[in-house]
User: Which sequence fits this backbone?
């Protein structure tokens, strides 16, 4: 049985570990956070992701998935080590590589036979070379000559759909610079080849760039459509019609053409900033990418602006927000538009009531009790002057408009994700605004 270690038990590390274990590999997940590892050993997972808890428990019970705080305890047994630690943005927007480089140093200090270190974290172009240098330096300091390779295997998981994305991916991108590393990665992914998906082997810098380019392209489509939607508002066009009209063009397609109140999460904001920083660092400002980021930051205020325009003076008003997570099927609130909207509403003197199916605890952890945490969408809307939809959870798609009209004090609905039928909402007696309609 092939044995691998995965350092980092966030979204990428934990999903990758559980899915590799499901395919029959022996996986050790490593994290320096003792509380997190203790919880995982008890079957308690630190994030919300559909299907992940069951997958982790099943493979742990089968003896294929293990958790430890010490990478050195398993290094002698594994053939591959994946580095899936965080790369948070520094103040200048660059990716903070301290954890990535610390994994490399630990790897270099303790390997005793040929081992492959694979970077799965999203890292700027050139990082693998720095990783290689750190490892070589540590091995040289030991007076040893132990062979090793580095590789890049960026992840393309969508939160809320991560297990399916790992098990049935569009493609797997692998950057290598030796035949030995290529053969090892091909062996690792062989069980997935039954599903006929593509493994794209390339050089390491190209693999690193592919991850950033993919996320930047998707972020660009979102910001482009938000720009179009805001102009539609001003000229009287309906962005839904425009979206269908351009999406019917096979060269454009329909995906990621949905306007809204801005993107958030752990990937797009961080990766767009990091790519822009890489461009500046190399004397080539990424003009399109920097505009994408500016548009997105502005878009996070659109729901607040529509609420202010419809309710007049916000001071003393009660506003209900439906949805806190940056997208459905996750409790992730990193860079979530809801955080900006809440800040602006509270600063304007409004009181805020919120409801989200899974992100309430995460919101409380981030902002404390500055808002009222409701038990349902109707509890949140009780006595409210306005309701704003921020996250398009399925549970929010068909509210009882008549009941809402009875329990609300006001008559304003702001749809930050364009999921409601304007005529239906207006027929129930509401003033309705969406994005670009």
Assistant:
């Amino acid at each position: 049985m092939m044995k691998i270690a995965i350092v980092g038990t966030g979204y990428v590390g934990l999903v990758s570990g559980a899915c590799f274990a499901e395919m029959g590999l022996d996986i050790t997940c490593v994290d320096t956070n003792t509380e997190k590892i203790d919880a995982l050993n008890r079957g308690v997972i630190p994030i919300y992701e559909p299907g992940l808890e069951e997958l982790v428990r099943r493979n742990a019970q089968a003896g294929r998935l293990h958790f430890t705080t010490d990478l050195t305890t398993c290094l002698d047994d594994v053939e591959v080590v994946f580095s899936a630690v965080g790369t948070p943005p520094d103040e200048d927007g660059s990716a903070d590589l301290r954890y990535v480089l610390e994994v490399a140093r630990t790897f270099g200090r303790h390997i005793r036979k040929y081992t492959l270190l694979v970077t799965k974290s999203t890292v700027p172009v050139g990082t693998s070379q720095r990783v290689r240098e750190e490892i070589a330096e540590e091995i040289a300091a030991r007076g040893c000559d132990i062979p090793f390779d580095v590789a890049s295997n960026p992840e393309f998981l969508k939160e809320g759909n991560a297990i399916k994305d790992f098990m049935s991916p569009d493609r797997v991108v692998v950057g290598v610079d030796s035949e030995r590393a290529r053969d090892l990665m091909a062996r690792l992914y062989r069980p997935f080849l039954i599903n006929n998906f593509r493994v794209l082997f390339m050089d390491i810098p190209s693999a690193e760039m592919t991850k950033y380019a993919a996320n930047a392209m998707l972020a660009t489509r979102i910001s482009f459509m938000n720009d179009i939607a805001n102009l539609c508002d001003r000229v009287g066009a309906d962005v839904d019609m425009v979206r269908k009209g351009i999406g019917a063009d096979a060269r454009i397609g329909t995906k990621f053409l949905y306007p809204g109140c801005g993107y958030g999460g752990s990937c797009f904001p961080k990766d767009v900033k990091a790519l822009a920083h890489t461009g500046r660092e190399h004397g080539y400002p990424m003009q399109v990418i920097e505009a994408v980021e500016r548009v997105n930051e502005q878009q996070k205020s659109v729901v607040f602006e529509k609420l202010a325009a419809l309710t007049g003076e916000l001071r003393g008003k009660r506003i209900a927000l439906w949805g806190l997570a940056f997208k459905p099927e996750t409790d992730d609130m990193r860079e979530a538009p809801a955080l900006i909207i809440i800040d602006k509403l509270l600063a304007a003197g409004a009181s805020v009531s919120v409801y989200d199916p899974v992100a309430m605890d995460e919101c409380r952890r981030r902002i404390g009790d500055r808002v009222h945490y409701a038990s349902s969408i109707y509890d949140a809307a009780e006595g409210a002057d306005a309701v704003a939809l921020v996250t398009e959870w399925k549970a929010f798609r068909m509210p009882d408009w008549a009941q809402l009209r009875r329990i609300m004090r006001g008559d304003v609905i702001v749809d930050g994700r364009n999921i409601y039928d304007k005529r239906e909402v207006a027929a129930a007696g509401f003033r309705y605004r969406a994005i670009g309609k």
